[in-house]
Amino acid sequence: MRSSTPILLTLAALGLVVAGCSNRQAQVQAALAGVCSGRGVPDAAAYAGGGVHPVVVLTSSGEPHDWSDDLAETWYPQSVQAAQLVACVEEEQERSIEVCPYNGPDITRYRYEVSLRLVEARTGVEVASTVLRGNDPRECRQTEDYDLTRLAGDHISFSAAANWLRAHVEMTSVSASTLPEPAEPASSVQNPPGASSPQASFVGEWQATDSYDGSAMRLTITGDTAGGYLLVWDDEYWSLCEGSSIVETTGGMDASDPNILHTYWVVECAVPGQVGEFAADIRYSELNDTLELIYDDGTSDTWYRASSPSSPQASFVGEWQATDSYDGSAMRLTIAGDTAGGYLLMWDDEYWSLCEGSAIVGTTGSMDASDPNILHTYWVVECAVPGQVGEFAADIRYSEVNDTLELIYDDGTSDTWYRASSPSSP
Questions:
Q1: Of 195, 101, 191, 89, nearest to 140 (Cα)?
Q2: Rounded CA gap, 58 and 79, in Å?
Q3: What is the CATH T-level fold of the domain 197-307, as seen in this structure?
Q4: Across-strand partners of 202?
Q5: Pairing of strands 85-89, 55-59
Q6: Residue range 61-73, pLDDT digits in tens
Q7: At residue 187, does pLDDT exceed 60?
Q8: Domains of the chain by residue range
Q9: CATH ID of 312-421, from 3.40.50.920, 2.40.50.840, 2.40.128.20, 3.30.830.10
């Protein structure tokens, strides 16, 4: 009988410990509730140093998110003063990806998506963002139950969020902050005569051989330190996809080393549900004028410059934006390459009328033999809706006077594109 008293005391003490931990967690969450709305907490720690950068998971409105219970103990801050990051999770959305017509009720296929932002706790400034996508549902079959009207994929699990967060929470070295610093006045920043701007070292087109499977790879980088970098990776064989794929992401320059870009890639294959994600740092070597892309498992590939960002043919090279004269949608065009190897073009339109939705289309272009200010292109637009395919030719004319592009469709109509970022620093 006597032994029961210590057991009860032990259980009571354990309850006090659990309650204490729970209360402490709730206090930290409550103190950081405004961070997702851009209100920083001066008492919080800066996103800096090495090792683990403690993070709190909240809804976009600042409430504790269900994923908070799944957070690794080593990731969770024990106090407001220890917190560096807040993960702001939007409500899960259901996206229609296909409508299958039948002699009866149609069946709509849905995929779940969640928008996730990572914010510095002290400043309330966004560090990174992504959209997590669940697996696609199964394909529609030749015959289905009459009452079936929807097919949905899997909901977003915390493991998907954790894989993305890990690249930032366990970043080995962050100096002061990974957030962009305010730009210095132009008069206070000077480069040696004849020297290129530091940010131009990444910009251009790069090529490499995949050390894993031997495939040929091409990487196009545009942008600058102020607005960030856009990266387009074309691999003739992604092992994950068992075929070719073109992947796009953004990159942020390391706060302490201007020769390092931090990136996070999401590879979506044509095979439904075949998705891969990984973090990678890109290190520029001034000595060799090469890039070393270091994967999160420690392996790496070396990239060699395919074309200089400051060569004469760079009038086309860069990132361009336009408004579609037909439907008013916002469009973005990325061009990289040169006259020798040809040009790679990526066209991102928020609304392709043919597809009744957004689409990203890639193609190649060749310079006119008699006019170096004209590129000839041919586009094939494949929509998510099966059988919905469009093809058209277009000439792209560069204006040296206005530094603009005129994209002339094969029916004679045209759109004017304005430079979104220069291929080389002024």
A1: 101
A2: 16
A3: Lipocalin (2.40.128)
A4: none
A5: parallel
A6: 999 999 988 888 8
A7: no
A8: 29-169, 197-307, 312-421
A9: 2.40.128.20
